[in-house]
Design a protein that fits this description.
heterodimer, A: mainly alpha, MetI-like fold, elongated, B: MetI-like fold
Chain lengths: 289, 314
């Protein structure tokens, strides 16, 4: 008996174990650094000493990067660096809010479908399959087109398109968890379903959802950039990396820097979320590798 | 075999019906009266009434849906507001262009993704594996429309090696057709190659540790035979299924790729339709891609069946 106590005493708390594994994962740490950097830039945009992203200067049109304009100027003389920084805000906002929408709608529906089963599961699952059949971006484009082009509508469109992913994932997890002994015993002592769902089911299905959410933010950021590139997201003159690329492709010959930086920024922030998601998956996986 | 196929089909039909409901519901999202655009400046009440009758907007919504779906079943997805062409005709016209792009991209994806996946699984934990993984993750993180823009900048603007845009049908001039399509296909193909590499790697990793591989090695078979004949054949089943699932990525990627390289295909049709507020075309495209995706899945199931002899008795 004493031996058993000794063993459990030596085990670190689960939170510590996860953090330790995560910290040992250098690519995940790189992802964390990238994401933190872009988050900081986006949050600090209003107080950074940069020119107004919408201020035009007809005397400094399409200037190459210089000491005055580190990333050059665009076709109507706006500072590219300043637009990049404000663009980070649009990108991250779109990524986080659209995934937030998908999680808020998808997770409860997935829990309901997985826990109750029967006809309600059949209805939810068939709808999920039908939505999954339309390619993510095509669905988002169609929704953005019918809702009207704006950043808000792009976020709603991306959020709805990502929802079935979370329904399917949560449902599968719940089906695994609900047969566990601790759920059985919670039911046996007569705990109300509401409490079983919130106290026993939800916390146990959360880790894979967190991983999926992180990876989906990466997808959502690319989707927002794509929609803005097509003119269906952020509307001018408000800055967004996607719409900057859309303008830049018309000036490739004269001002290649206009196309260079927004693409690198999208790449780095998306890479950051992908690395972070992969790292979280490894850290949260209870099985050792 | 036939019963397996029929069972799959029976599951697909309700899904397709639901998709049609969603696609129909899209038009109800439109703010305001879409007919006001059609009726022109005067908004003559008589014209409006005529159009309402014509598009059955006076009927209850379920009746509208049944009429729409009935027409769709007969291959009538409505007419484009803009060109007055039937939507099915428009799609049929643009589809071959996108299929050419898709096939060429898939060739790139398979040629890069599968060998890279096999190699990195075989050399798991080595530098090769690490590099392949970094490249694949980067491939997943690069927005492919930006990659396209950068390639145009280098290959077309700077070096002037390949045309930056346009489309030549293969029937007209095969060589020119391949030349114009190779860059877009590469851009789209690399994105898919990254996904394919990751799938191949994990499928191969699962197989390489199994008992029959150890047996094959113990029999003294050459490594080449073990890897390709024994391991890869068994890893192929999930790879084929997942490749079919890439269909969605392929179509979505085609939208952006065609936009950048001004290729007059399916993807360009969607974007143009969106900007011209040609809603019937947008609906038609969503319906066709979704049904296409389900059919691809059916095909993947069939392939699964054919590749896996253990299922044949079922």
């Amino acid at each position: 008996m004493a031996l058993v106590d000794q063993d459990t005493a030596d085990l670190p708390a689960p939170e510590n174990r996860v953090w330790k594994k995560f910290r040992g994962h250098s690519s995940a740490m790189l992802g964390g650094v990238l994401v933190t950097f872009f988050l900081a830039v986006a949050l600090l945009a209003p107080i950074l000493p940069i020119p107004d992203p919408a201020a035009t200067d007809w005397g400094a049109v399409r200037q190459a990067p210089s000491a005055a304009h580190w990333m050059g100027t665009d076709e109507i003389g706006r500072d590219v660096l300043s637009r990049m920084i404000w663009g980070a805000q649009a990108s991250l906002l779109a990524g986080v809010i659209s995934v937030g929408i998908a999680v808020i709608i998808g997770v409860p529906l997935g829990i309901i479908a997985g826990y109750f089963g029967g006809w309600i599961d059949a209805v939810i699952s068939r709808c999920t399959e039908a939505l999954l059949a339309a390619p993510f971006l095509i669905l988002a484009i169609a929704l953005a087109a019918f809702l009207g082009p704006s950043l808000t509508n792009a976020m709603i469109a991306i959020g709805i398109s990502a929802t079935p992913l979370f329904i399917r994932l949560t449902r599968g997890q719940v089906i695994n968890v609900k047969v566990e002994d601790y759920v059985e015993s919670a039911r046996a002592i007569g705990l109300p379903t509401r409490l079983i769902l919130s106290r026993y089911i939800f916390p146990n299905v959360l880790p894979p959802i967190l991983v999926q959410a992180t990876l989906t933010i990466a997808t959502a950021i690319i989707a927002e950039a794509s929609l803005s590139f097509l003119g269906l997201g952020q509307q001018p003159p408000a800055p967004s990396w996607g719409s900057m690329l859309n303008t830049a492709k018309n000036f490739l010959n004269q001002a290649p820097w206009m196309a260079l930086y927004p693409g690198i920024a999208i790449f780095l922030v998306v890479l950051g979320f992908n690395l972070l998601g992969d790292g979280l998956r490894d850290a949260l996986d209870p099985r050792e590798h | 075999m036939l019963s397996f196929f029929l069972r799959r089909l029976a599951i697909a039909i309700p899904t397709i019906l639901l998709i049609s409901v969603f696609v129909f519901a899209l038009q109800k999202l439109l703010p305001g009266d879409p007919l006001l655009v059609l009726a022109g400046e005067e908004r003559d009440p008589e014209v409006l009434e005529f159009l309402r009758e014509k598009y059955r907007l006076n009927d209850p919504i379920p009746i509208q849906y049944l009429a729409w779906v009935g027409n769709a079943l007969q291959g009538d997805l409505g007419t484009s507001f803009r060109t007055n062409q039937p939507v099915t005709e428009l799609i049929a016209e643009k589809l071959p262009v996108t299929i050419q792009l898709a096939v060429m991209s898939l060739i790139f994806a398979v040629l890069i993704g599968i060998p890279a996946g096999i190699l990195s699984a075989y050399r798991k934990g080595t530098l090769t594996d690490y590099v392949a993984n970094v490249v694949a993750l980067s491939g997943l993180s690069i927005p492919n429309f930006w990659l396209g823009i950068m390639l145009i900048l280098l290959v077309s603007v700077k070096w002037q090696l390949l045309p930056a845009s346009g489309y030549v049908p293969p029937g007209e001039d095969l060589w020119q057709s391949i030349r114009t399509m190779i860059m877009p296909a590469f851009v789209l193909g690399t994105a898919l190659a990254a996904t394919l590499m990751r799938h191949t790697r994990s499928a191969m990793l699962g197989v390489l540790t199994s008992d029959y591989i150890r047996t094959a090695r113990a029999k003294g078979l050459s490594e080449r035979r073990v890897v390709f004949k024994h391991a890869f054949r068994n890893a192929l089943t999930p790879i084929v299924t997942l490749t079919a699932l890439l269909f969605g990525e392929l179509i979505a990627g085609a939208v952006l790729t065609e936009q950048i390289f001004t290729i007059p295909g399916f993807g360009k049709l969607v974007v143009d339709a969106v900007f011209n507020r040609d809603y019937a075309v947008v609906q038609g495209i969503v319906l066709v891609t979704a049904v296409g995706f389900i059919l691809m899945n059916l095909l993947a199931d069939m392939a699964y069946f054919l590749l896996n002899p253990r299922l044949r008795g079922a």
